[in-house]
Specification:
139 residues, 6 strands
């Protein structure tokens, strides 16, 4: 193979990498054990609620679990699209199909002089932000 110095150097790098990987794995497993213990502790002290309509002072400061329908009294609407719906969250995501300009520049030497060549390419894409088309075709 190679000279003894290269072989022992590679072995040393491998040993350091293995040791580091072992340490990271050990620390990660320790965190997983702590997380599992915390979840088990929470599960052992949680108080399930029979109803969501009554607040009991005896549960003040305790870990409680409840389940019920998620409701809101307010009707959410989007006036731009004329939509009104009984929901908890309404999110609008708009994209525009538009021309996008790409620029690729490279420098080269010709007759002892450094020159820069720029090539433009164009593509149509769906984008959520407005792409300025002011410079398209002006190069």
């Amino acid at each position: 193979s190679g000279p003894p110095g290269e072989t022992s150097g590679g072995m040393l790098i491998g040993l350091i990498t293995f040791s580091l990987a072992f340490y990271v794995h050990f620390v990660n497993e320790g965190r997983a054990v702590k997380t599992a213990a915390s979840l088990d502790e929470g599960l052992s002290i949680v108080v399930p609620l029979d109803t969501i309509n009554v607040v009991s002072p005896q549960n003040e400061g305790r870990l409680v679990h409840l389940a019920g329908a998620l409701r809101t009294a307010k009707i959410l609407n989007d006036p731009n699209y004329g939509i009104a719906i009984d929901c908890v969250k309404l999110k609008r995501q708009v994209e525009m199909y538009q021309w996008v300009e790409y620029e690729d520049s490279k420098e080269y030497e010709e007759n002892g002089e450094i020159k820069k060549e720029t090539r433009y390419s164009y593509n149509t894409e769906w984008k959520s932000e407005v792409v300025s088309s002011r410079q398209i075709g002006r190069a």
